[in-house]
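[Q] Does anyone have a clean structure-token version of this?
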Amino acid sequence: MFRSLIIFTCVQALNGEAKHPGQVDHHNKTAENPKRTASQLEKASMPKSNYAKTEIGVEKSPSNVRRSLQMQVSENAVHSNGHKREEVQAEKGYCNDTKNYMYDESLGKQGHSTVCHQQPNGNGNTRTPKKGACREPDALRTPKSPRKKANNLSNQIQKWNPKDSSQILAVKAALHLSAVPTTVICREEELKKVLEFCKMCIEKKKVGSMYVCGCPGTGKSLLLEKVKFLSIEWAKEVGMPPPTSVVVNCTSLTNTSDIFSKILEQCQGKKKCSVNSSPFQELKSFLCEKKQSSAKKMTLLIIDEMDYLISKDQAVLYDLFRLPTFPNSHCMLIGISNAIDLTDRFLPKLQSLNCKPLVMTFRAYSKDQILKILQQRLMGLPCQIFQPEALELCARKVAAASGDMRKVLHVCRGAVEMLEAELTSGIHELDNISYEKSMTNGLNLPPERLTKQEINRVRIDHMARALAKTFRSAVVDTIQSLPRHQQIVLCSAVKFFRRRKKDATLGELNAAYLDFCKTTSMYPLTGPEFSSMCRVLSDQALLNLGQSREDRLRRVTLRVDEGDVNFALQGIRFFRNCLQ
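[A] Here you go.
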């Protein structure tokens, strides 16, 4: 009876006639009551195309049908009873597939390593698991864009805070003269020539001398320090004995003849020479010691501020330039000075003695070169401290005055100190300074309403005040208010002392004044009038006059800085062309 009932039910399923009111399609999963009869489960589990055959076309027996129905009943019971369990798992951070798990840091629980699929709910609609229920693995996760990475990096960089004393000290240290840059820029050609000279002397065991000259603050001493280091490194790389480097600054000497004792002290470590010989003779014996060519080690002598060795007979300078010409000498001499024609005017016999040095002239820095050097020094700081317009103003003014890089660093440090004082006092509005327009030459100053970022940066008004403090001093105002011929005397003194020693007689300065007037087609004053003008300039602390029975023999020195004179007279085309 039971068997016939099952067969009858199967026939009805084939014809599509039997349909129990409680039957629900399993594929749609809309059943509210998961418990089903055997006939309903049979019709739901068999395919519509051919319920009596399996996928491989073999007819099922009644026993096989009964066994499959029992397995389907248990499977659906597990599926229907597991809705709540899946919801709890989704809330706890689990997924359906329980093969692979990973630790979800945001939830503090283990999460699934694959993407969660939508789950059906009891109402027949699909349900998306809650956000954070599972995590994608790192390999499947979409990487961050470069812009987001750059934003994250910028957040990690230390922000500029001028009220932080450590950051202010870091900026001042970067702008200090003692901060030696790793590379020498804007002097590549000069570096190449001086280094090639040293390499040739080391490689061929050949002696020689070179004279490096130029205006103050043009990188002469800095470049020679770099050459000293590079020549030693190059000699080690090629397997040759590195040269012995000796650097002497003549400003530290009390007497010109002490230069030889200083050199011996660095070469041999001796502070005192023997009584029987002079320091020069002992140095000559040391540098001209006869050695085998393989063991011959060159000595690099760098004499800075060589113009301080100028004397009446110039004996010390002649002896220095003769050192490389002695037999068996292993000396390379490089002299540094601000005087451009020192070897021609003061040492005319060098050519006849066959010891005339090579001459290397350093020009003053231009505006673009000053900007490039400033950017190199500020590159190591974590953020932008100066407004670009402020740096350009500083570069333009100093390049027009003297091109002295040391003065540029001094002005920039002064601008940083002004910003620090302004923020300390709590004043953030621009001061109405009368000379700002003349200093900026038409450049737009910052608006009165400043943003927080502009307040914390060195602006163009800070730089204008720092330049005014450096250049527009009482000396500059005094020079600008002088009569034209007194300005010509000062301009003649600047040109005269630029290429010669630090002092001269009044007669020599008068000759330079006459040459200046002749060059510019100006009618010169007489000798007594010239002496009277010099006394007036001495009373105003612009010149220093010595004592002598005759006016023409009185010693004259310039008591003001050359940059002050250039800055005071650069606005007049007549003097600007003459001072170049």
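[Q] Thanks! Anything notable?
[A] Residues 350 and 493 are 27 Å apart (CA to CA).
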